[in-house]
Every structure is written in C-alpha cells, then in structure tokens.
Specification:
mainly alpha; Hect, E3 ligase catalytic domain; 3 domains
C-alpha cells in the first residue's frame, strides 16, 4: 500500500545497513503530525545492524499492518462476528468465506487482454491468439480457476 516504504524496507534487506544510525523506530502520522514510535522497548537506543535488520523489517511490518490499525481491526471483527458467529467459521474454508463476503467475481476478459503483460512472446503471435481464443470459451468459474492458477 505504501510503495516508498516497500522500497525502503527492500533496500534495508538487500544492502549493508551498518553505520546508517537507524534505530528500532518508525514514523507514523497522527492527526497530520509525524510521530516517531518505538518498535520494541528502548527502540530509540537499539541500532539496526546487519544482524538484526530482518527483525527490524518484520517489526515495522507488524506495527504498520496490525498495531497501527488495531481499532479498525477490532471494529471490523465486532461487525463481522455480529453477522457470522465464530462457531460457524470452523465449517467454512477460506474460499467459502471469500465467496460469502465478496460474492462470485465476474471476470472481464477484455480487461485481462488490455492489461496483460507478455514476456518472451509477441502479443500478436499465434500462440497468444490461440490462448485468448480458448480462454474466451471459459465459464466464469473456469476463468476464476485460471486467475487463481496464474496468480498463485
């Protein structure tokens, strides 16, 4: 969601961070003001090094994806649990739950064609033409399975 932060964290993992004088802290916005928070106790005093940079990145991700949005998660769960009692969740697979929440997706094949990126093959090649010809005969369920397959 934050491409700059993603680049920064990726850079941290891929480069030597010794001597950068970074600490186990992160910045967040509170009512438009930038606030520095500790990732761990005494985080202002713990320097990020080659030995602990993976832990640092994990702590930043954890803080931003869970701790910073705890009130929103709690509100979501309260509403979710009001609609679907927890005892029923044990009987649902993740895909069943997704269908329950989102409904059946409608896949726009023309949108796929427009935004498809090709590597090692020309988009006007017979191979690609045959692919789209075959895929155009798929049902929505089959398109969903294809999407699941290609997106992992």
């Amino acid at each position: 969601m934050d491409s700059d932060l993603t680049k920064q964290l990726k850079w941290t993992l891929e480069n030597d961070v010794d001597n950068l004088q970074s600490t186990f802290t992160y910045e967040t916005q509170i009512f438009g003001q930038s606030v520095t928070k500790e990732l761990v106790e005494n985080g202002f005093e713990i320097e990020v090094t080659e030995k602990n940079k993976k832990e640092y990145v994990m702590k930043v991700c954890e803080a931003l994806m869970t701790k910073e949005i705890e009130p929103q998660i709690a509100a979501f769960l309260k509403g979710f649990r009001a609609i679907i009692p927890m005892r029923f969740l044990a009987y649902l697979s993740p895909s069943d739950l997704e269908l329950l929440i989102s409904g059946t997706p409608t896949i726009d094949l023309e949108d796929w064609k427009t935004h498809c990126q090709y590597e090692y093959v020309d988009k006007d090649s017979n191979l690609i033409k045959w692919f789209w010809e075959i895929v155009s005969e798929f049902t929505q369920e089959e398109l969903g399975s294809l999407l699941f397959f290609i997106s992992g």
